[in-house]
């Protein structure tokens, strides 16, 4: 029991720190790495909620594949440092204020809601809750339409990404092997602190 | 652990992501903050699934992960296209859709 609580607080603080790192770090490269830490902490939280399959998927698909895609793009376009609060206008002031207001409202909604079950550990679970067998059975019976729609959506996204990022003739000026901008430094693979 | 702890944590993560989307200017970081918000939603879904003892919430979270992957692929494709067309990588200066 105490072990679960300890694990929750460690993973929760890790997830919050990762999220803050994504927003506050100036270099996009470090933001991506911070998000990887956040996703791993979130996978631990999923394990605490008895979602084993989802936790494994989170680590393999999200922290593995999707983040590698991000890293490639950051390395490609060159993660340049950006001043953290360049504008002193309305967005810079009211953005965090608005976010804090939404956060307070969400917390009030969760804590003060009349749902009695929120203050319990949840319903009694049978064996195999959240295991791959149970998830797979649900996916291929009750949620078959959503499953197929998701697979079609992935296909559309893959084709769309290829179309979007292909090299267009005419839009880029002629020259040897269109590549990165010449006015940018070429050492974009390096992480600059 | 009570389920409400997980829900409050997911609210905090969502809020941090929302603040990032509103204040950061690099589209890559904006996409990362969108991921944060989607993940907060996932955590809430899984928490409610635990509360009800019903795996449907986990299926929802799985589908949300698929949607997030699609969104990342398209978003990164757009950013790479912006870079190729020598447009500024800055959401404040990208104000027209004409490619």
Structural summary, described in words:
The complex is a heterodimer of chains A (193) and B (99). Helices cover 64% and strands 0% of the residues of chain A. Among the domains of chain A are: 1-82, NADH-ubiquinone/plastoquinone oxidoreductase chain 6, subunit NuoJ (Four Helix Bundle (Hemerythrin (Met), subunit A), Up-down Bundle); 127-168, no CATH class. In chain A, helix 1 packs antiparallel against helix 2 (28-48) and helix 2 packs antiparallel against helix 3. The radius of gyration of chain A is 22 Å and the shape is globular. Chain A has helices at residues 2-24, 28-48, 52-77, 90-111, 132-140, 144-165. Chain A is mainly α. Chain B contains three helices and no strands. The longest helix of chain B has 29 residues, at 56-84. Chain B starts with a helix and ends in a 15-residue tail after the last helix. Classes of the chains: A mainly alpha (193), B mainly alpha (99). At the A-B interface, helix 1, helix 2, helix 3, helix 4 and helix 5 of A face helix 1, helix 2 and helix 3 of B.
């Amino acid at each position: 029991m105490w072990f679960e609580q300890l694990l929750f607080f460690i993973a929760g603080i890790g997830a919050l720190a990762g999220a803050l790192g994504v927003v506050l770090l100036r270099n996009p490269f470090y933001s991506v790495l911070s998000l990887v830490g956040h996703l791993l902490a979130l996978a631990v939280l999923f394990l605490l909620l008895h979602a084993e399959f989802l936790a494994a998927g989170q680590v393999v698909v999200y922290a593995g594949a999707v983040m590698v895609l991000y890293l490639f793009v950051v390395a490609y376009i060159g993660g340049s440092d950006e001043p953290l609060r360049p504008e002193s206008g309305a967005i810079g002031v009211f953005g965090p204020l608005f976010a804090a207001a939404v956060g307070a409202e969400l917390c009030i909604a969760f804590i003060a809601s009349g749902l009695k079950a929120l203050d319990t550990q949840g319903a009694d679970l049978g064996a195999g809750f959240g295991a791959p067998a149970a998830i797979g059975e649900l996916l291929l019976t009750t949620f078959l339409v959503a499953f197929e729609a998701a697979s079609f959506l992935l296909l559309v996204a893959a084709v769309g990404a290829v179309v979007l990022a292909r090299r267009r003739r005419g839009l880029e000026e002629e020259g040897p092997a269109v590549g990165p901008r010449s006015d940018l430094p070429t050492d974009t693979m390096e992480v600059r602190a | 652990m009570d389920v409400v702890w997980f829900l409050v944590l997911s609210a905090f993560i969502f809020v941090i992501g929302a603040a990032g989307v509103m204040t950061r200017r690099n589209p890559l970081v904006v996409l990362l903050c969108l991921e944060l918000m989607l993940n907060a939603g996932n955590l809430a879904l899984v928490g409610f699934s635990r509360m009800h003892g019903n795996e449907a919430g986990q299926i929802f979270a799985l589908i949300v992960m698929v949607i997030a992957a699609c969104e990342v692929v398209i978003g990164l494709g757009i950013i790479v296209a912006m870079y190729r067309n020598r447009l500024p990588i800055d959401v404040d200066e990208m104000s027209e859709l004409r490619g």
